[in-house]
Amino acid sequence: MYFLLSNLSFIDVCQATFATPKMIADFLSEHKTITFQGCMSQIFFLHVFGGSEMVLLVAMAYDRYIAICKPLHYMTIMSRRVCTVLVGVSWTIGILHSASHLAFTVNLPFCGPNKVDNFFCDLPLVIKLACLDTYVLEILVLTNSGLLSLICFLLLLISYIVILATVHHQAPGGMSKALSTLSAHITVVVLFFGPLIFIYIWPFESFPIDKFISVFFTVFTPLLNPVIYTLRNKDVKEAIKKLRSQHVHSKQVF
C-alpha cells in the first residue's frame, strides 16, 4: 500500500508542478506567451500524469480488494514485484496515451491567431486553432481520453461493488469498517474524476468555469490527495494524538 501511495504522491507532485511555474510567471507578466515546444510539452506531461494516475488508482483499488477480501493472502499476492509491475503498467499506459495524442497534434498547421483561452495548453483548445477541419481529430481525442477514463472508472466502480458485496456476505457487521478503509480512496477518485468528467462532457466548448476546473484539477487535486491519505492513516492519527497530548501536558506543567 505504501509503495503505491508513494508513487501516487510522486505523480501528484509532477502534476501539480508541470504547468504551475509558467502559470505563476504569466500572472506576473503582461505578455503571456509560450513556445510551440513548451505548449506540446505541457500537453504531453498533462496526459502522461493524468493517464498514469487513473491506472494507478485502479491498481490501488485492487490492493484494497486483496487487503479487505483476502487479508491472509495479502503479503503473498501484493508482493513488491507485483506492485512494481502495476506501477510500471500505469506509467506505460500513461506514456502511450499521451504519445498517441501528440502523434497527430505536432504536425497540425497553425495559421493564427494562436491564442489558448486557458492557464496552460489544453489539447482540445489547441486542436481548435488548427487551420483545417478538426472534426475527425476531435473524435479521436474524445475517444482516446474518454475510453481510458471510462474503462478506469468502471473498473473502480466494479471493485467497490465487489468489495462491499463480499464484506456484506462474509461479515455483515464489517461493512462500516470496509467503508472506512475505502473512504480515502473513494474521496481521491471523486476529486480526480469529478473535474475530468465535466471537462470531457464538452471538451471543445469553452465556458468561464473551465479555467477554475483546470486549475483545480492540475493544482489543488494533487495537493489534496496526500492530505486525504495522511489524515486517514492510523499511524499518522496516533502520532497526531501523541503530539497533541504532549502539547497539552507541557502546557499543564508550565
Automatic annotation (TrEMBL):
Molecular function (Gene Ontology), one example: G protein-coupled receptor activity
Signal peptide annotation: 1-16
Cellular component aspect of the GO annotation: plasma membrane
Main location: membrane
Membrane topology label: Multi-pass membrane protein
InterPro entries, per database record: GPCR_Rhodpsn (IPR000276), GPCR_Rhodpsn_7TM (IPR017452), Olfact_rcpt (IPR000725), Olfactory_Receptors (IPR050427)
Location in the cell: Cell membrane
Keyword Lipid biosynthesis: no
Family: Belongs to the G-protein coupled receptor 1 family.
UniProt protein name: Olfactory receptor
